[in-house]
Amino acid sequence: MKTINLLVGGPTDLWPDSLRQGEIDGDWIGVDRGNVWLVQMEIKPLISIGDFDSMDQSEFEIISNNVSDIRTYNPDKDYTDTQLALKIASDELKADVINIFGATGGRIDHFISNYLLATEPKFRDIVEKIRIIDKQNVIQYFTPGEHEITKIDMMHYLAFIPMNVMHLSIHDAVYKLDNYYVERPFAYSSNQFDGDKCHFDFDNGVLCVIQSKDA
């Protein structure tokens, strides 16, 4: 299974310890300022992308001296840098799993943009490959059908967030649902696993599932 990691420009204080310690498996795409941070951690991105409008010349030189494939885009473009990185990870690098780091915190409009990526029709085919990860949360997305997830070590809470109208069933959790009709986007938060695995199913749209812990 091929994993591609994206590091975007969100606050570094929300990174998981495994990122700081260089323990993340897979290759990397650096997105804008995320490229500088990767190089500083002695991680060489396969590809660096961005409009690079948020950094000075010395920072860009750090990237150009360490990365062979740099793709610069006009700030006035139809795709965000993160969207472009997703397309490259999926279409060019044929990723099976796409982990996005640095996508939370900071400007809330940036986070919402990242969070809603899974609802965009152009990413419909890769929804289940995407994970947004920070030190307290792992965010995943699912398409209609039956699913099983495994409890992530150290994560205590489980949330189900329907992003469309759907019928939703949740099994193997403390709070269960049985073919419940969800008529609008809603966060069923602060649930917990009832064991090591949880099964759920739904019939329409996209379902966001978050495993999380307190700080």
TrEMBL record:
Gene Ontology terms for molecular function: ATP binding; kinase activity; thiamine binding; thiamine diphosphokinase activity
Keywords for this protein: ATP-binding, Kinase, Nucleotide-binding, Transferase
Boundaries of every Thiamin pyrophosphokinase thiamin-binding domain copy: 145-207
Enzyme Commission number, as recorded: 2.7.6.2
KW Transferase (keyword) present: yes
Coiled-coil annotated residue ranges, if any: none
SUPFAM superfamilies: Thiamin pyrophosphokinase, catalytic domain
InterPro entries per the UniProt record, alphabetical: Thi_PPkinase, Thiamin_PyroPKinase_B1-bd, TPK, TPK_catalytic, TPK_catalytic_sf
Gene3D superfamilies recorded: Thiamin pyrophosphokinase, catalytic domain
Superkingdom in the source lineage: Bacteria
GO BP field: thiamine diphosphate biosynthetic process; thiamine metabolic process
Lipid metabolism among keywords: no
Protein name (Swiss-Prot/TrEMBL): Thiamine diphosphokinase
